[in-house]
Amino acid sequence: MTDFDALMMRRALDLARLGTGYARPNPLVGCVVTHEGRIIGEGWHRQYGGPHAEVNALAAVADPRLLAESRVYVTLEPCSHFGKTPPCADLLIAKGVRDVVVCNLDPNPLVAGRGIARLREAGVTVETGLLEAEGRWLNRRFFTFQEKQRPYIVLKWAETADGYLAGPYFQPVRISGEIAHLATHQWRTEEQAILVGTRTALHDNPRLNARNWPGQDPIRIVIDKNLSLPPSHHLFDAQQPTLVYTYRSRPTQGNLGYITLSEADDLFPQLLANLHQRNVQSVLVEGGPTVLSSLLRDGLWDEMRVIRSPRTLGGGIPAPRHGLSGLHEQFRLGEDEVFVYLKP
Which residues participate in Zn(2+) binding (predicted)? Predict the structure, then answer.
């Protein structure tokens, strides 16, 4: 592989990233078509149910006769099965493409090497693994969902400089600044669902939408074991799909679904298994401390974002303590500092 190959694959990864929040539950995929050292077509998977990246990139090529002498870069193995669209491997073959570079193999059992095999059987030269680690990070939600049979879980909370995330008796307190607040809404558009526990829902009465950032609202998830939350709360306003996980029984009402769990088994493994069945690939967990601490204790998380404010409370509900020393990333959002950890 050459420096030019790496440059083109990075361009394909950048294109793939443009589908964040829109391609789900499909993976993020970008594609670049080159001929004699210049780009002649590019595309990405823009919307779930719409044309795949390869379709858009090939359609952008002004002179299809060049495809037989072109090199195609794609961030994920071309699909080999009929879903909402025909197989992209077949399209590449039909268009006469003879040279394909792939970043990641697709772990989906419906593909899992079959796309590569189909291309090679048709005489196409296929190279794999270029910028593989970068591709896995980009599609970490998709890979976690396929390989661990559960959603990718992002834990997030804001804490004061003296280690509190709420006032005494769970009194709601605005901890983070305006820029961090906007970032939180952006993060909500990037994950398929958002989860809170009973106390957070009761005391904060959150909307759990992304009203302050352009993008799709996440599916709302609330744990309400005994169905004790007031029906007047925002979570039950029918403004976006909402799932209530409970030990009681109640029929689904429109886009408000009730899922009854067994009291005999651990709650979170049941909940995550049900979300996997529903094809929910990522969850942003916004609290409260009981939910966050339980997921940390059980190792049921993948990424943690802690927003630390310079302000102090002097007392209240302590933030979770995780004991992790290795930081993945640290940056500032206005007056606040953000610490990002990845599960070891």
Answer: 52, 79, 88
How many whole angstroms separate alpha carbon 189 and alpha carbon 214?
A: 8
Stretches where the chain sits below pLDDT 70 are 81-85
Q: Is 144 annotated as a binding residue?
A: no
At residue 139, φ and ψ (nearest 5 deg) are -105, 35
pLDDT, tens digit (0-9, with 9 covering 90-100), for 258-309: 999 999 899 999 999 999 999 999 999 997 899 999 999 999 999 999 999 9
Asked if residue 125 lies in contact with residue 162, where contact means CB atoms within 8 angstroms, the answer is no
Domains parsed from the chain with CATH numbers: 3-141 (3.40.140.10), 149-342 (3.40.430.10)
Q: Tell me the one-letter amino acid at 130.
A: L
Give pLDDT, residue 324. Answer: 83
125 assigned to a ligand binding site = no
Distance (Å, rounded) from C-alpha 290 to C-alpha 281? Answer: 23
User: Are 270 and 262 in contact, with CB atoms under 8 Å apart?
Assistant: yes
161 is annotated as contributing to ligand binding:
no
Q: Is 90 strand, coil or helix?
A: helix
Residues with catalytic function: 54
Model-level pTM? 0.93
Q: What is the pLDDT of residue 82?
A: 57
CA 202, CA 93: separation in Å to the nearest integer?
56
Measured between alpha carbons, how far is 160 from 175 in angstroms, rounded to an integer?
A: 6
Any alpha helices (H) in the chain, and if so which ranges?
A: 3-17, 53-59, 88-94, 114-121, 132-138, 140-148, 178-190, 198-204, 267-277, 289-298
